[in-house]
Specification:
The complex is a heterodimer of chains A (428) and B (453). With 428 residues, chain A is of the alpha+beta class. Chain A is built from 17 helices and eleven strands. Chain A has a six-stranded mixed beta sheet with strand order 1-2-6-3-5-4, with helices on both faces. A five-stranded mixed beta sheet of chain A has the order 7-11-8-10-9. Chain A is globular, with a radius of gyration of 23 Å. Chain B has helices at 11-14, 66-73, 85-92, 117-129, 135-154, 157-169, 183-188, 191-201, 217-226, 281-293, 299-307, 340-357, 361-378, 382-394, 401-411, 414-424, 442-448, and strands at residues 25-28, 34-39, 45-52, 96-101, 106-113, 207-213, 251-258, 263-270, 311-318, 326-334, 430-438. Residues 1-20 and 443-453 of chain B have low confidence and may be disordered. With 453 residues, chain B is α+β, with helices and mostly antiparallel strands. Chain B starts with 10 loop residues before the first helix and ends in a 5-residue tail after the last helix. Classes of the chains: A alpha+beta (428), B alpha+beta (453). The interface between A and B is large, with 83 and 74 residues.
């Protein structure tokens, strides 16, 4: 035990200086994060808006997702086929997605002048002046409804949807797109959602790669200037913890899909978040070496995949345990899961487990940022959730500071069995 | 609005870092193990992989899935390492590790801070020769693999259609068997089956090591000699050709499973790449695949999904680099209110259009632009670079052929694309597999299936 600790502190100081993140705020309120790196002739730009699913109008879950996915369906100058062709001819990659909290619109382009200029001009036009043509809207609405109907026949998708709804009854986080909610959406909903939420105020612009600071400033200014200034969004309503319950949903599959969890964790850089992160590694986040993996998979062969995860958001995101096991075996497998969880909540990790968790999280620092794509993700995360600029540098130190007592206290405070929701699809 | 199905399009093979003079480096140890090292100093990280030329195509009937089962067992103990210790060491080094099995190969990898490479090579070399298979560990692990089959295939209608397609298109060739194995074979598999597989195929002369990252290749060669170099080569079993007889007539098969949307797969038998200097057709087929579905402006998404709105999704796939035989596959789901028959006719019409009218120069140009851009983007990922080397080597080519492969793609003409469309897309070598969606069990659904809200 002692020995492990000595080793651990010996290695704990990161030997690799992290990337230099530059940050500034534009007059419009848009925040810019920039890392200059000329190793590869690539430029990445991403903009994040507080325009995620939680901002979809009541009863119209799906507006945020459709707005993001149709943002490249037309501009005043170009139709969607011209846009697709132009992106392909530039060798650029464009991606627009949304999650619960945010919408992200990203561009990856070669940094050679012609490609870069062409791609940035198109990117800015897509962000700021999408026309959401009626024909494309109707087509994608239909495709979305079809995909949702199909998902409603699959046990994994049913379990995920019911779990989200049960965790957040009466909260925007629980508004899941359904065939019915999407059927109510009009083209005007998208236009209005874009007008209200794709604005400079509150936007986070991340720029990474083969450009100078001057160029990065010009790019950020150009994007921000194209967007309406807008107003800050109102805070989301508080999350209320659900009552403990178990939902059993019948399905003919050979294997049951099981989720257990509750709203638990906000994205932040406070010590409690790191206590949850380190603790979760031991419980079920640390891949093959976690307790859940050992007890459920390795020892008993009950599941191929079993994990616990933290999904931090602006407000309390889920703590979740998930597994799949043959339908006849649900009770046995759940019994093991409950025992592992109860014991972890009562005792926390052992000294040895804590040391092992820290070693992985600290030594693994280099893997977190070994590509432009991964580092860009951190820039956006730091910007959107207001994490400290030195988040990546501090990460190992914050992890190192966590004690067993910290883990126990954080789990006791955030993972309360009396609020645990269980969803079982295709059990007996 | 942009959908990609499960096919790796040719871009996944055709993209790689710009050629440099010596990098990557390679050596062959005395025991026959090849070591390929690509230095990439952008971050203090290294990817270490070992690939065995033993995949599900090397299995026998009755023990299908054993290649993959052994892959799982490789994470148990060795003569000097306790079960589970391998993963623990990787985790404590701050790394992550996993493995994968395909029709053609089984591969293991760790991504770690560079300081941990020597330990990873010791560990990986250790389990190349010293694995200890215990009946009780096998007994629980085979249950894990059955759960994996339930998750990936039994309850996944599209995966069952794909499995059925291959079992129908191939009668003699081992590609007719699924990588994960038939459930009945998994149920009757014994630990001795896994041991036999290990004894037969796990040898330095049936493997190669790929290292990409912040390393000096000379150091890696030394480490390889000191670790893998200790093992003796084995006499490998003869590999029988098991060629598929020519298909002389269309085959059609239906799979029923709970789903909302139908699903269609159409597979034509086409040539794979054999001689990278002389072959032309495989490259023309790669370009054809890209023109149909290589990007958002390609024909299938543009014409069938967005234009005619006949498809909910539509895709094309072709893999030239395989040990066995290969197919050109079109896949799709019909759009709301359209039938599978209409979708099939529309996909056939797209092929016919190319047979009759050929392809446009600007379509070819786009393919080339995509290749060039993808070459650059690939350099942002060490794992992607290691995968690319490992995959091309798995089919008996060299990593040096990656550059040739790209040059050949760029040299394909419109006439060549039209010629392969005419020659190979004929009714007699086509196999069609269709998902016929079934409602969820009515009784159960009424009671519990609460999605109707």
């Amino acid at each position: 035990m002692r020995f492990l600790f000595v080793i651990f502190f010996f290695f704990a100081v990161p030997v690799w200086a992290g990337p230099q993140i530059q940050h500034w705020v534009l007059p419009s309120g848009a925040k810019v994060y920039f890392v200059e790196n000329h190793d590869l002739p690539i430029l990445d730009v991403q903009i994040d808006f507080p325009a995620g699913g939680a901002r979809s109008p009541a009863g119209k879950a799906g507006v945020a997702g459709l707005t993001a996915s149709l943002i490249d369906a037309g501009t005043p100058e170009l139709d969607e086929e011209e846009i697709s062709a132009r992106l392909v001819e530039l060798g650029a990659r464009f991606a627009s997605t949304s999650d619960h909290d945010k919408a992200s619109v990203g561009l990856r382009t070669l940094s050679s002048r012609e490609e870069k200029e062409g791609a940035l001009a198109l990117y800015t036009a897509l962000l700021a002046t999408p026309t959401f043509p009626a024909a494309a809207f109707e087509r994608e609405k239909t495709r979305t409804i079809e995909a949702l109907k199909d998902a409603d026949t699959r046990p994994d998708a049913i379990a995920a949807k019911r779990f989200a709804q049960a965790l957040y009854p009466d909260h925007p986080y629980g508004q899941v797109a359904t065939p019915e909610s999407v059927a109510r959406i009009t083209r005007e909903d998208l236009v209005e959602f874009h007008r209200r939420h794709y604005v400079a105020n509150g936007a986070v612009i991340s720029i990474l790669g083969d450009v100078t600071r001057d160029e990065a400033e010009a790019i950020a200014n150009r994007i921000a200037a194209a967007l309406p200034p807008g107003a800050p969004v109102a805070p989301l309503p508080a999350v209320r913890l659900p009552a403990r319950e178990t939902l059993k949903i019948a399905h003919p599959a050979t294997q049951a899909h099981i989720h257990l969890g509750l709203p638990a964790v906000r994205r932040s850089a406070n010590p409690e978040y790191f206590a949850l992160l380190v603790g979760n590694y031991t419980l079920g986040g640390g891949g093959f070496v976690s307790r859940l993996m050992k007890e459920v998979r390795e020892k008993r062969g009950f599941a191929y995949s079993v994990y616990s995860s933290l999904g931090p958001r602006v407000l309390e995101g889920p703590f979740e345990i998930g597994l799949q096991t043959k339908r006849e075996q649900v009770e046995e497998a759940l019994k093991v899961v409950h025992e592992v969880l109860a014991r972890f909540l009562a005792e926390g990790p052992t000294d040895e487990e804590l040391a092992a968790a820290k070693k992985n999280l600290i030594q693994g620092q280099a893997l977190r940022i070994d590509s432009n794509a991964k580092l860009l993700g951190y820039l956006a995360l730091i910007g959107f959730y207001g994490l400290p600029l030195d988040y990546l540098d501090q990460f190992p130190k914050w992890v190192a500071a966590v004690t067993r007592e910290d883990v126990k206290a954080a789990f006791r405070r955030h993972v309360k069995p009396e609020h645990l929701v269980t969803v079982i699809v295709a059990g007996e | 609005m942009k959908q990609r199905l499960f096919f790796a399009c040719w871009l996944s093979l055709a993209v790689l870092p710009a050629p440099t003079l010596a990098n990557p480096y390679e050596t062959t140890l005395k025991n026959g193990l090849r070591v390929i090292v690509k230095e990439d100093r952008r971050a203090p990280v290294v990817v270490h992989m070992v690939w065995y030329r033993a995949g599900s195509m090397d299995e026998q009937d009755g023990t299908s899935g054993v290649a993959h089962v052994l892959e799982h067992m490789m994470f148990k103990g060795t003569k000097t390492l306790k079960a589970g210790e391998f993963n623990k060491r990787v985790a404590e080094a701050g790394g992550r590790d996993n493995a994968f099995t395909s029709l053609d190969y089984t591969a293991y990898f760790q991504i770690v801070p560079k300081e941990a490479l020597p330990e990873m090579m010791r560990l990986e070399a250790d389990r190349m020769a010293n694995l200890v298979l215990k009946p009780e560990e096998f007994a629980s692990e085979i249950e894990v693999v059955k759960e994996e089959r339930r998750l990936r295939t039994e309850d996944n209608p599209q995966a069952r259609v794909y499995e059925t397609l291959n079992a129908t298109a191939f009668m003699a060739h081992p590609y007719r068997r699924p990588v994960i194995g038939w459930m009945s074979d998994l149920e009757s598999m014994t630990w001795q089956d896994a041991r036999e597989w290990y004894r037969r195929w796990y040898a330095p002369n049936n493997a190669y090591v790929v290292v990409v990252g912040d390393v000096d290749h000379r150091e890696v060669f030394k480490l390889a000699a000191a670790t893998y170099g200790r093992h003796k080569p084995k006499a490998l079993p003869e590999r029988k050709p098991q060629k598929e007889p020519p298909q002389q007539g269309q085959r059609r098969v239906i799979v029923k499973a709970p789903a909302e949307l139908p699903y269609l797969l159409m597979a034509w038998k086409v040539p794979k790449l054999i001689d990278i200097d002389r072959d032309r057709e495989p490259f023309a087929l790669e370009v054809l695949s890209s023109i149909l579905d290589g990007n958002d402006a390609a024909r299938l998404p543009k014409r069938l999904v967005r234009g005619e709105k006949i498809a909910q999704s539509a895709s094309a796939g072709y893999d030239a680099i395989v040990r066995g035989e290969t197919q050109f596959i079109l896949a799709g789901q019909p759009a709301a209110g359209r039938s599978v028959a209409e979708l099939e006719a529309a996909l056939q019409a797209e092929i016919k259009r190319i047979q009759d009218e050929g392809v446009a120069e600007d379509e070819l140009k786009r393919v080339k632009t995509q290749v060039i851009a993808a070459q650059v983007y690939k350099r942002d990922s060490m794992m992607a670079q290691a995968m690319e080397i490992g995959q091309i080597e798995s089919a008996g080519f060299s990593y040096r052929d990656i550059d040739k492969f790209i040059e050949k793609i760029k040299s394909v003409t419109a006439e060549e694309v039209q010629a392969v469309a005419k020659k190979y897309f004929v009714p007699d070598t086509l196999t069609v597999a269709v998902l016929d969606p079934q409602p969820l069990d009515a009784k159960r659904e009424r009671r519990g299936f609460a999605a109707r809200h």
